């Protein structure tokens, strides 16, 4: 398999609140030998804050429109047909996408139509009218949010409204990076904004106290993280569905999914963060 090309994004300084001026983009990771396979022309906007959770929106004012279905759009619609694959080890499912359109399922989501008992271990794109063998792990109950925290979670979520042309975000708790999530287009990100963000709200609520991060320090850290993404080693993963998936290793960890020259999904966390699949997908608070 060919070596993975890096996620190639663009960042604009400084952290603008009203979009970046024309021609002000600079390379996030642009080394001539890498080429430009997955381009997302984007910048990090002025941060939003609630208590010690800071979120920098990722904005792509000229991003593409990607014609993929999302799992949120097909619940109980018959788009997917799922069955167990015998006694396979590790456990796997055979998943048929009955639609003509590719279907995007993010890491940590259950397969639509399941009773949600299995989580997808990494982001995948199921081709239209195809059957795909999908590894899936049991749900971890730890992802649920207790009922006595519902109002607190709702309050926190209200502080992080989506912005025009937003395709993702970079989240910090105090000075500690929680993660970066980015989709390849605003039309994909919009319906997933709450689903993606609620995971980091939960982490911030459960985290130990952290030293506050001032704006200039966090901006420097954001730049370091972007450099880390650009410099990360990319290791080709086993092909599941359509597109190419690479894992990231180095100062950051995570993975990116690309298809036909476009970024589909990038998920990054600090290499110091550990943990397996987490049930984070519910847009509404789930009561225990």
Which structural class should the secondary elements be placed in?
alpha+beta
Q: Spans with pLDDT under 50 lasting ≥5 residues? A: 1-37, 273-288
Shape descriptor reads globular
Mean pLDDT across the residues is 76
Radius of gyration, CA atoms, in whole angstroms? 18 Å
Give the biggest sheet: 9 strands, antiparallel
**How many structural domains are formed by the residues?**
2
**Number of helix segments?**
4
How much helicity do the residues have? 10-25%
The separation of the N and C termini measures 45 Å
Q: DSSP strand (E) fraction? A: 25-35%
Secondary-structure element sequence? EEEEEEEEEEEEEHEEHHHEEEE
Number of strands: 19
Strands, helices and their partners?
Layout: E1 7-11, E2 26-27, E3 38-41, E4 43-44, E5 48-50, E6 53-59, E7 69-70, E8 80-84, E9 92-97, E10 103-105, E11 118-120, E12 124-126, E13 130-138, H1 150-157, E14 166-173, E15 176-183, H2 186-189, H3 193-206, H4 215-231, E16 233-236, E17 244-249, E18 252-259, E19 262-270
Parallel strand pairs: 1-3, 7-10
Antiparallel strand pairs: 1-2, 4-6, 5-6, 6-14, 8-9, 9-13, 10-12, 11-13, 14-15, 15-19, 16-17, 17-18, 18-19
